[in-house]
Design brief:
The structure is a homohexamer. By secondary structure, the first copy, chain A, is α+β, with helices and mostly antiparallel strands. Chain A has a single domain, classed as Tetrahydropterin Synthase, Chain A, CATH 3.30.479. Chain A has three helices and five strands, in the order E-H-E-H-E-H-E-E. Chain A has helices spanning about 25-30, 65-80, 95-110, and strands at about 1-15, 40-50, 80, 115-125, 130. In chain A, strands 3-1-2-4-5 form a five-stranded mixed sheet. The longest helix of chain A has 16 residues, at about 65-80. The two termini of chain A are about 20 Å apart. At the A-B interface, strand 1, strand 2 and strand 3 of A face strand 1, strand 2 and strand 3 of B. Strand 5 of chain A pairs antiparallel with strand 1 (about 1-15) of chain C, so a sheet runs across the interface.
Chain lengths: ~140, ~140, ~140, ~140, ~140, ~140
């Protein structure tokens, strides 16, 4: 069993916002992260797949193929986008990094052609990271 | 003459947008960077001050003081903000990184209590950097 | 279950020193790391908390709150300090990074308001890292 | 139980190449990674050892000792080498990072004087990482 | 005048080799860097262009355009290549990083559509960097 | 003219302290940086040499040779040392990073066998850098 990781980046806008609360209540709950005019991040995404090494190729999975899957199902929907408005798989969700990693897991879980999705890790800033392993 | 650098970060939303052009014209000119729903970045800002070393302290300038000046005049106006809407010193400017480094220079130029402002460097992404030296 | 990480840094002096041994014996055992005049590091600390996502906030735990807890119980006691002399929770311990990660775990274990402390990771240098998971 | 990590780097040439296939077939399977004239990487290697803290030293294992073991059994055989030709423990293996991490594990598994080898992690580029834990 | 930087990476094999000397003489002069079976690096390239900000766009030069120029004239000729054999603009040159930065400068100098080429910076390893400014 | 850089690191203890002032006055002037029990840093040092490329080697200067010079004249005197007490070339100086870069310049200025010393850059923390160019 080898764990292979592909790192990607995307630049997105968002605001933390809980449906059903007013702007004032959201600002009280989330502080500057709920700025009604948005803010944004250079997110760093790490996708980890665990699997047996294929003796025909020496790969668990060709990372070029994994890169294309991540771009098709995630990056194209989040890069230079607004996560609250533009991203279909985030609609109705408060875009905390916790909710983003779970949503990205669901996007990718059944798209991995070899091995199994093991972990989604997201760096929101250089000091704040989040990981989901499907548990 | 010693060059001292203080590094700060801020998370902001923006879109590239030239006044007087329509959304369509802006999208044609700036591509995904002009997404009407915004996108954002974790910007990294480096402020460089050049000066003689003060023999009384061994400092060009106390970096704690420089940090406070940068926070008061720049970070408080850009962190968790929308650079097109929220930032007074960017109003009327297309928020390209070129325009941001020049605007930050103007914010700080006459606020440095010792030495002289030498350079403003801004990392928009890990692959794109911009520097202005007041030339 | 999402794993959230807060990264902090601190600058501290220390020397490796085993009580009951002479300076010479300590220098023989620990080499330059036992310099009687001390040396120091920019330590990087990563605190990982694992927990369920609170549906009211989309957080496992507000990272601002976690940051304050880490500052109150750890950073205020180690930053710009001497780990052998100044840090109450290290008194009587040889300040190897192994002993530091265990001691920081004990400082934080019962202070986490939601979720459970999962891991303490410490980078002593860019080449040497240490992790403790309470096992 | 503390997990200690030593990070090392090495610069090596390689090409992906499956024995029994022609150059053309290898190029079809592996693309530019099978360039017959080779290419290369600055690999980053992380070796993780898990063990109890020795109360006599406060160490799981002296990282200077671990560094020497890694240099003797791995770095001396891969740094400024061609992984397909020069490295005895890679002979007959297609030098994918998956195969390299497993081979390095086998090199080090029975050389660790205290604690147990827990993980071998290899960064082939800043975007592609690989980990093996002996499972 | 704003200085804009585009960062790119490439993975290449090379060996230091002076024409007219034997393998033995080259090994004596260049040590392990002259391994006849090659070694390689993940090079990091930074291209800096200096120019006035175009008031119509807020750009010195669209970094997407600069990226395409660098890929066409440099990256396509060095990535996953052997710098001694495969790279037309390095033929006949000993591929030290000093010679590479000068050769890349010559490749790009007259291809910059706005502003002027200011600097070529190359990281061979995380500890060794090289810069050429056309002086 | 090519600029070549060698990056080195060292771990040292220090305190900011101006001779002739009391502990209290130093603490008032320098805050936590004057802790009488010391603190420390992982300093990162970059030494830049500028020179013509030697056509016999393709080098400005062999970086292995530059590394040895830096180790002999700087690293051996500062790594795992106390900069206030142990380092001969810092005796009598308040070890601010400004004073350290100037002192390292003086240590190395006349030891460079080819090209000329161009810059000494020192990172005290990931947010504070200092550069001296002999001006």
């Amino acid at each position: 069993m080898v764990y292979i990781t592909r790192r990607e980046t995307f630049a997105a806008a968002h605001r933390l916002f809980k449906d059903g609360l007013s702007n004032e209540e959201n600002l009280k709950l989330f502080g500057k992260c709920s700025n009604p005019n948005w803010h944004g991040h250079n997110y760093i995404l790490e996708v980890v797949v665990a699997g047996e090494v294929n003796p025909a190729t020496g790969f668990v999975l060709d990372l070029k193929e994994l890169k294309e899957i991540i771009h098709k199902h995630v990056i194209s929907k989040v890069d230079h986008k607004n996560l609250n408005i533009d991203t279909d798989f985030m609609i109705g969700l408060n875009p905390t990094s916790e909710n983003i990693v779970i949503a990205i897991w669901k996007q990718l879980e059944d798209k991995i052609p070899a091995g199994k999705l093991y972990s989604i890790k997201l760096y929101e800033t250089e000091n704040n990271y989040f990981e989901y392993r499907g548990e």
